[in-house]
Amino acid sequence: MKKKGYSLKNRLYMLLFVSLVPLTILITYLLVMTNNVSAQYDEIVEKITKANEYNINFKDDLDYSMYIIVVNAERANDIIDTNKPVQMIDEACEMFGTLSKEADTEAARTRLSSIIKSLNTLRDRVIEIEESALTSGSYETNMERLDLNIRVLTELIQEEVQFYIYEQTRNMEILKEGIRSRVEKAISITSVLLVVILVGALTISRRIMEEITGPIRHLCHVAERAGSGDFKTRAHEEKIDEIAVLNASFNRMVEEIGKLVEDIRVEELNLRAAELRLLQEQINPHFLYNTLDNIIWLAESKETQQVVNMVSALSDFFRTTLSKGKDYISVRDEEAHIKSYLQIQQFRYSDILDYEIDMDEEVYHCEILKLTLQPLVENALYHGIKGKRGLGHIQVKGCVRDGLLEFQVIDDGIGMKEERLNEVRKIITGEVENTKERGGFGLFNVNERIRLNYGREYGLRIKSVYGEGTCILVTVPAVKK
C-alpha cells in the first residue's frame, strides 16, 4: 500500500512557511515594541512642549496685560483686549485639564490639579482687579493688588509648571532606562528565538529538502542504470506525489524500452537467420553442380567463348551474392546479379526460357537490399516457367513512383489456383509456417528481410491466374545512393 505524502508543491510551501513565518513573528514583535516606545516618547515630548509654552510666555503676557489695565484703566480698551487675561487663564485651564486626564502617574496628576487650582484663583483675582481698576481708579491699591495677587500667583504657577516639566523630563529618563532594559531584553529574546528559529528551520528544511531531493537522486541513479542498458531497474513508488507520478511514468517507459529492445533483438536475430537462409539458398549445391557440369561439357566440346561466358556469369553471380558483406547494393548491381543468374539458367533451359529486364533510368540512382530480386526470378523459373509446356518469358520491371521503388517480376508460367495463391500469401506474411514442403520458402525470406530492414508496411504482393502466369510486386523506399 502506498504511503500518503504531501505533494511537491505543498512541501515547497511548507519550506517557505517554516523559513518566513518565525522571522515574520520576530520582526513583528520588534516593530510593535519600537512603535510602543516611540509612542510613549512622543507623548512625553508633546506634554513637555505644551507645558513649556505656558512656562515661557504665560506669566509675562498676563502680567503685562494686567499692568496696562491697572495703569491705564480708562484707556485700557484702546491699548489691549481687556478680556484677554481671562481668556488666557481659561485656555491654560483647558490645556492643563487635558494633560491631567492623560497623566500616567499620580504625581503628575497631583501637580496638574495644583496648577489648575492656582489658575482658578488667578482668574478670580484678575476679575477683582479689573473691576476695581475700572470703578475706583486707585492706582496705589491696584498696583499693590497686582504685585500681591497677580504676579505672585503667576510666578507660583510658573514654578509649578516648571516642576511638572521637570517631572516629565524625569519620566523621559525613566522611559529611556526602560527602553534600554527592554532593548536588552528584546536582544536576549531575539537571540534565543533566532537560534531556535534557525535550528528549527534548518532541521525542518533539511528534512523537507531531503524528501524532495532524495527521490530525485534515486531517479537519476536508476536513469543512469537504464541508460547503461539495465532495463530491469525500477524507481520507487512509495508515496503519492509528483515525483511518485514521475517514477511510475519512468518505470513504464523503462519497461516499454526493455520490451522494444527485446523485440529489436529478436528481429535482428530473425533478420540474420533470414539472410543466412537466403544466402544458403543462393549457394545451392545443385545449382553449382549443374553449372559446373555445363562448363565441363562446353570445355569438352571446345566451346571456348561459351565457357568464358559461363564462368564470367558464375563469377559475377557469386560476387554479388557475397558483396563483401554489405547489406545494401545499387540497383544496377542487383540487375547485374539477376542477369548473371538468367544467363546461366538460359544456357540450361534455352528451349523454355526467355527474359527481359526493363528498368527506368531513375532507379539506377537508388540502392536496394541485396538478394531482393534474384530469389523472385528463381521462383518464377522453377515454379512458373518449368510448370508449363513450351517457351516461357520472365520480365523484370523497375520504376520510382511517389518516393517508392517498385519492381515487378512477371512470368507467363503455369500460375496458381486461388486456393494455392491464398496459401502462398499466408506463407509470405508468416500466417502459415514457411516449410519447404509447403513451398514459398524463398518468398517468405525475401519478404521478411524487407519488413525487418524497411518496416512492416513494405514487402511483397503476389497476383496469379492459373494457366496465365504470376506477378510479384516489390515495394521499398526509394533511397538514393
Describe this entry's structure for a reader:
The chain contains 12 helices and 8 strands. Helix 1 runs parallel beside helix 4 (106-135). The strands form 2 sheets. Strands 2-4-5-7-6 form a 5-stranded mixed sheet. The chain has a 3-stranded antiparallel sheet with strand order 1-3-8. The mean pLDDT is 77. It is 70% helix and 10% strand. Strand 6 and strand 7 form a beta hairpin.
Key features?
481 residues; alpha+beta; 5-stranded mixed beta sheet; 8 strands; 10% strand; rod-shaped
Give, in spatial order, the strands making up the sheet with the most strands: 2-4-5-7-6
Cα distance, first to last residue? 58 Å
Unreliable parts = none
Number of strands: 8
What structural category do the secondary elements indicate?
alpha+beta
Number of helices: 12
Roughly how much helix do the residues carry, as a percent range? 55-70%
Instruction: Sum up the overall morphology in one term.
Output: rod-shaped
The topology string of helices and strands comes to HHHHHHHHEHEEHEEHHEEE
Radius of gyration: 60 Å
Strand content: 5-15%
Overall pLDDT metric:
77
Biggest β-sheet: count, sense, barrel?
5 strands, mixed
